From TrEMBL:
Catalytic reactions of this protein: dCMP + ATP = dCDP + ADP; CMP + ATP = CDP + ADP
Keywords annotated in UniProt: ATP-binding, Cytoplasm, Kinase, Nucleotide-binding, Transferase
Organism lineage: Bacteria, Bacillati, Actinomycetota, Actinomycetes, Micrococcales
Compartment(s) where it occurs, according to its Swiss-Prot or TrEMBL record: Cytoplasm
Claim: ATP-binding is one of the keywords in the record: yes
Annotated HAMAP family: Cytidyl_kinase_type1 (MF_00238)
An individual GO BP term: pyrimidine nucleotide metabolic process
Keyword set includes ATP-binding: yes
Domain Cytidylate kinase as annotated: residue spans: 6-216
Binding site for ATP: G10, P11, A12, G13, S14, G15, K16, S17, S18
A Pfam family matched in the record: Cytidylate_kin
Annotated source species: Mycetocola reblochoni
Top-level taxonomic group: Bacteria
Protein family membership: Belongs to the cytidylate kinase family. Type 1 subfamily.
Protein's recorded name: Cytidylate kinase
Amino acid sequence: MSEIVIAIDGPAGSGKSSVSKQAARRLGYAYLDTGAAYRALAWDLLDRGVDTDDAEAVTGALAGFDYSISIDPDDYWVRVGDVDVTEAIREPRVSGVVSQVARVPEVRSTVTALFHRIIAEAPNDGIIVEGRDITTVVAPDAQTRILLTAAEEVRMARRSAELTGESTARVAEQLQKRDRADSAVVDFMTAADGVTTVDSTDIGFDETIDRVIGVIRGDAA
Ligand SMILES: Nc1ncnc2c1ncn2[C@@H]1O[C@H](COP(=O)(O)OP(=O)(O)OP(=O)(O)O)[C@@H](O)[C@H]1O
Ligand SMILES: Nc1ccn([C@@H]2O[C@H](COP(=O)(O)O)[C@@H](O)[C@H]2O)c(=O)n1
């Protein structure tokens, strides 16, 4: 069981997954991507033909959601049943509906219970858990709580550099739309009491990891 829990929240494209994964590698910790559970559920609902706008139908489909995720930062995968959905859950069709699914209270309580089980069973000394409500709901008592952020235009530019098949305007529109919808459910734009902000707007990837590890080790932010 992990003695140390590091909670990291932030808006879309702020670097939560890439920075958390790399920091976990360096510290020998496990890494839990909580957004993957919401994405995998959205993928599963689309696959089963469930209307993702219908909260009752989404709640009804939760019992059949057979989800597993690797918490090894060197061997990351996500599965629904026997299907490896690691890549598929990043597709725009999933990103486009995930916020609708994540706003359903029964979804949030079910996946939060799942996260608590994964955290409790992690074999490493520590685990880095990233998402939107980790510092406030999933692990408010975590030893270290960080809000990882960056200016919206910088996040858009970084995301559109990754998604070569999509126009910059479309990527920007989707990122803004998702942040707006997600912000209506949880506040990940402002740091809660006791949460340290790391702003990567003007710093590169490696320096961001150094800053995050510095906060975890108790250096000044
Ligand atoms: N400090 C940084 N400097 C440069 N690039 C960065 C920095 N931090 C993250 N990136 C890049 O920004 C992109 C988005 O990062 P990442 O996917 O980790 O964000 P995220 O917060 O997990 O996004 P989402 O919530 O949408 O899944 C990646 O290409 C990543 O390599
Ligand atoms: N703690 C969380 C994490 C994620 N979500 C929802 O999932 C979507 C995908 O998350 P990514 O981190 O992969 O971008 C996100 O847009 C939220 O709708 C959440 O609600 N809580």
